Amino acid sequence: MINIALPKGRLGEKVYQILEQAGYPCPAIREENRKLVFENPAAGVRYFWVKPSDVAIYVERAAADIGIAGKDILLEYQPEVYELADLGVGTCRMCVAGKKGVRDRRDQTLRVATKFPKIAKSYYSAQSRDIDIIKLHGSIELAPLLGLSDVIVDIVETGKTLLENDLEVKETIVPISARLIANRVSYKFKHPEITQLCRQVDEYCRQT
Q: For residues 165, 52, 157 and 128, what is the CA-based torsion angle, rounded to 10 degrees?
Protein backbone atom coordinates (compact mmCIF):
# COMPACT_ATOMS: atom_id res chain seq x y z
CA MET A 1 0.00 0.00 0.00
CA ILE A 2 1.15 3.53 -0.78
CA ASN A 3 0.15 5.95 1.98
CA ILE A 4 -0.82 9.31 0.49
CA ALA A 5 -1.29 12.58 2.40
CA LEU A 6 -3.79 14.86 0.67
CA PRO A 7 -4.16 18.55 1.58
CA LYS A 8 -7.65 19.45 2.80
CA GLY A 9 -9.70 21.82 0.67
CA ARG A 10 -10.06 22.59 -3.02
CA LEU A 11 -6.46 21.72 -3.86
CA GLY A 12 -6.75 18.28 -2.30
CA GLU A 13 -9.97 17.60 -4.17
CA LYS A 14 -8.33 18.56 -7.47
CA VAL A 15 -5.33 16.36 -6.73
CA TYR A 16 -7.51 13.41 -5.73
CA GLN A 17 -9.34 13.71 -9.07
CA ILE A 18 -5.98 13.46 -10.85
CA LEU A 19 -4.97 10.39 -8.83
CA GLU A 20 -8.40 8.82 -9.30
CA GLN A 21 -8.28 9.28 -13.08
CA ALA A 22 -4.68 8.07 -13.16
CA GLY A 23 -5.75 4.68 -11.80
CA TYR A 24 -5.74 5.16 -8.02
CA PRO A 25 -9.39 5.52 -7.03
CA CYS A 26 -10.80 5.15 -3.54
CA PRO A 27 -14.62 5.36 -3.67
CA ALA A 28 -14.95 5.71 0.13
CA ILE A 29 -13.30 9.11 0.00
CA ARG A 30 -16.34 10.55 -1.81
CA GLU A 31 -18.84 9.23 0.74
CA GLU A 32 -20.43 11.48 3.37
CA ASN A 33 -18.65 10.42 6.55
CA ARG A 34 -16.20 11.58 9.19
CA LYS A 35 -13.49 9.06 8.44
CA LEU A 36 -9.90 10.24 8.45
CA VAL A 37 -8.33 7.34 6.56
CA PHE A 38 -9.59 5.82 3.30
CA GLU A 39 -8.10 2.82 1.55
CA ASN A 40 -8.55 0.72 -1.54
CA PRO A 41 -6.45 -2.47 -1.31
CA ALA A 42 -7.28 -3.31 -4.93
CA ALA A 43 -5.59 -0.10 -6.11
CA GLY A 44 -2.88 -0.36 -3.47
CA VAL A 45 -3.52 3.06 -1.93
CA ARG A 46 -4.43 4.52 1.44
CA TYR A 47 -5.41 8.21 1.56
CA PHE A 48 -5.81 10.64 4.44
CA TRP A 49 -6.67 14.32 4.61
CA VAL A 50 -4.38 16.67 6.52
CA LYS A 51 -3.94 20.41 6.90
CA PRO A 52 -2.00 21.66 3.83
CA SER A 53 0.91 22.98 5.89
CA ASP A 54 1.21 19.58 7.64
CA VAL A 55 1.56 17.42 4.51
CA ALA A 56 5.33 17.82 4.34
CA ILE A 57 5.66 16.84 8.02
CA TYR A 58 3.68 13.62 7.52
CA VAL A 59 5.82 12.76 4.51
CA GLU A 60 9.15 13.73 6.05
CA ARG A 61 8.44 11.64 9.16
CA ALA A 62 7.21 8.64 7.13
CA ALA A 63 3.59 8.69 8.30
CA ALA A 64 2.92 9.06 4.55
CA ASP A 65 4.96 7.66 1.68
CA ILE A 66 3.99 10.49 -0.64
CA GLY A 67 1.96 13.67 -0.43
CA ILE A 68 1.02 16.83 -2.25
CA ALA A 69 2.35 20.14 -0.94
CA GLY A 70 2.52 23.65 -2.33
CA LYS A 71 5.92 24.89 -3.41
CA ASP A 72 5.51 27.68 -0.84
CA ILE A 73 5.46 25.10 1.97
CA LEU A 74 8.55 23.37 0.60
CA LEU A 75 10.47 26.63 0.30
CA GLU A 76 9.45 27.86 3.75
CA TYR A 77 9.93 24.69 5.81
CA GLN A 78 12.56 22.97 3.65
CA PRO A 79 11.59 19.41 4.65
CA GLU A 80 13.93 16.53 3.86
CA VAL A 81 11.80 14.95 1.13
CA TYR A 82 12.12 14.23 -2.57
CA GLU A 83 10.20 16.51 -4.92
CA LEU A 84 8.98 14.20 -7.69
CA ALA A 85 6.68 16.25 -9.91
CA ASP A 86 4.92 19.54 -10.52
CA LEU A 87 1.22 18.69 -10.83
CA GLY A 88 0.39 22.01 -12.46
CA VAL A 89 -2.57 22.73 -10.16
CA GLY A 90 -2.98 25.22 -7.35
CA THR A 91 -0.99 27.73 -9.37
CA CYS A 92 -0.31 31.16 -7.88
CA ARG A 93 2.77 33.20 -7.01
CA MET A 94 4.71 34.43 -4.01
CA CYS A 95 4.89 38.21 -4.22
CA VAL A 96 5.98 41.40 -2.53
CA ALA A 97 3.04 43.78 -2.30
CA GLY A 98 2.46 47.20 -0.81
CA LYS A 99 0.48 50.40 -1.08
CA LYS A 100 -0.06 51.72 -4.58
CA GLY A 101 2.41 54.36 -5.65
CA VAL A 102 4.67 53.98 -2.59
CA ARG A 103 8.31 53.36 -3.47
CA ASP A 104 10.87 51.44 -1.45
CA ARG A 105 13.30 53.78 0.33
CA ARG A 106 16.50 51.74 0.33
CA ASP A 107 18.16 54.00 2.91
CA GLN A 108 15.74 52.67 5.54
CA THR A 109 15.14 49.23 7.04
CA LEU A 110 12.23 47.67 5.17
CA ARG A 111 9.47 46.34 7.42
CA VAL A 112 8.09 43.13 5.94
CA ALA A 113 4.93 41.42 7.24
CA THR A 114 4.57 37.78 6.20
CA LYS A 115 3.55 34.23 7.02
CA PHE A 116 6.69 33.10 5.20
CA PRO A 117 9.73 34.55 7.05
CA LYS A 118 12.29 32.17 5.52
CA ILE A 119 11.21 32.95 1.97
CA ALA A 120 11.22 36.68 2.70
CA LYS A 121 14.65 36.58 4.38
CA SER A 122 16.14 34.54 1.56
CA TYR A 123 14.72 36.86 -1.10
CA TYR A 124 15.95 40.08 0.50
CA SER A 125 19.25 38.57 1.60
CA ALA A 126 20.06 37.94 -2.07
CA GLN A 127 19.56 41.70 -2.58
CA SER A 128 21.65 42.59 0.51
CA ARG A 129 18.56 44.44 1.75
CA ASP A 130 18.18 45.30 5.44
CA ILE A 131 14.75 44.14 6.59
CA ASP A 132 12.68 43.74 9.74
CA ILE A 133 10.47 40.64 9.59
CA ILE A 134 7.04 40.84 11.22
CA LYS A 135 5.51 37.37 11.30
CA LEU A 136 1.73 37.34 11.17
CA HIS A 137 -0.84 34.55 10.95
CA GLY A 138 -3.99 36.39 9.91
CA SER A 139 -4.87 38.94 7.24
CA ILE A 140 -1.45 40.02 6.02
CA GLU A 141 -2.94 42.74 3.79
CA LEU A 142 -3.93 44.71 6.89
CA ALA A 143 -0.31 45.36 7.95
CA PRO A 144 0.64 48.06 5.40
CA LEU A 145 -2.81 49.65 5.64
CA LEU A 146 -2.33 50.30 9.37
CA GLY A 147 1.34 51.22 9.11
CA LEU A 148 2.59 48.03 10.77
CA SER A 149 4.74 47.22 7.74
CA ASP A 150 5.98 48.78 4.53
CA VAL A 151 5.29 45.71 2.40
CA ILE A 152 4.02 42.16 2.68
CA VAL A 153 5.33 38.89 1.27
CA ASP A 154 2.42 36.59 0.57
CA ILE A 155 0.74 34.29 -1.92
CA VAL A 156 -1.22 36.04 -4.66
CA GLU A 157 -3.75 34.09 -6.69
CA THR A 158 -6.06 36.56 -8.44
CA GLY A 159 -4.87 39.80 -6.84
CA LYS A 160 -8.47 40.79 -6.06
CA THR A 161 -7.88 41.23 -2.31
CA LEU A 162 -4.90 43.49 -3.00
CA LEU A 163 -6.90 45.57 -5.47
CA GLU A 164 -9.82 46.02 -3.08
CA ASN A 165 -7.44 47.27 -0.38
CA ASP A 166 -5.52 49.73 -2.58
CA LEU A 167 -2.45 47.50 -2.66
CA GLU A 168 -0.42 46.29 -5.62
CA VAL A 169 2.17 43.65 -6.46
CA LYS A 170 5.64 45.20 -6.40
CA GLU A 171 7.69 42.11 -7.28
CA THR A 172 7.13 38.42 -7.96
CA ILE A 173 9.44 36.18 -5.94
CA VAL A 174 8.58 32.73 -7.28
CA PRO A 175 5.71 30.88 -9.02
CA ILE A 176 3.86 28.41 -6.81
CA SER A 177 2.05 25.17 -7.64
CA ALA A 178 1.29 21.77 -6.10
CA ARG A 179 4.21 19.34 -5.97
CA LEU A 180 4.21 15.59 -5.50
CA ILE A 181 6.71 14.75 -2.75
CA ALA A 182 8.01 11.48 -1.31
CA ASN A 183 9.58 10.27 1.89
CA ARG A 184 13.22 9.43 1.18
CA VAL A 185 13.12 5.97 2.76
CA SER A 186 9.77 5.10 1.20
CA TYR A 187 11.09 6.13 -2.20
CA LYS A 188 13.85 3.57 -1.78
CA PHE A 189 11.78 0.67 -0.44
CA LYS A 190 8.60 1.32 -2.44
CA HIS A 191 10.39 2.58 -5.52
CA PRO A 192 8.51 0.44 -8.11
CA GLU A 193 5.09 1.41 -6.71
CA ILE A 194 5.89 5.12 -6.37
CA THR A 195 7.52 5.45 -9.78
CA GLN A 196 4.57 3.64 -11.36
CA LEU A 197 2.17 6.09 -9.71
CA CYS A 198 4.28 9.02 -10.92
CA ARG A 199 4.29 7.60 -14.44
CA GLN A 200 0.52 7.15 -14.54
CA VAL A 201 -0.10 10.61 -13.10
CA ASP A 202 2.26 12.12 -15.66
CA GLU A 203 0.50 10.28 -18.52
CA TYR A 204 -2.90 11.48 -17.33
CA CYS A 205 -1.71 15.08 -16.96
CA ARG A 206 -0.26 15.04 -20.48
CA GLN A 207 -3.60 13.92 -21.91
CA THR A 208 -5.63 16.67 -20.21
A: 80
Q: Amino acid identity, residue 113?
A: A
Interval 127-172: pLDDT, tens: 999 999 999 999 999 999 999 999 999 999 999 999 999 999 999 9
* 8 A C-beta contact, residue 80 and residue 102: no
> Alpha-carbon distance 85 to 71, whole Å?
11
Q: Are 60 and 81 in contact (CB under 8 A)?
A: yes
Tens-place pLDDT, residues 80-124: 999 999 999 999 999 999 999 888 888 899 999 999 999 999 999
Q: Is 151 helix (H, G, I), strand (E, B) or coil?
A: strand
Helix (H, G, I), strand (E, B) or coil at 159: coil
- What is the distance between the alpha carbons of residues 167 and 160, in angstroms, rounded to a whole number? 10
pTM summary value: 0.91
Q: Which of 98, 115, 102 is nearest to 169 (CA)?
A: 98
Nearest residue to 177 (alpha-carbon basis) of 74, 34, 66 = 74
Nearest to 67 by CA among 187, 177, 179: 179
CA dist., res. 200 & res. 189, Å (int): 19
Q: Is 205 helix (H, G, I), strand (E, B) or coil?
A: helix
* pLDDT one-digit tens code per residue, 180-201: 999 999 999 999 999 999 999 9
Q: Which helix (H) or strand (E) segment is 168 a member of?
A: strand 167-176
Q: What is the DSSP letter of 62?
A: T
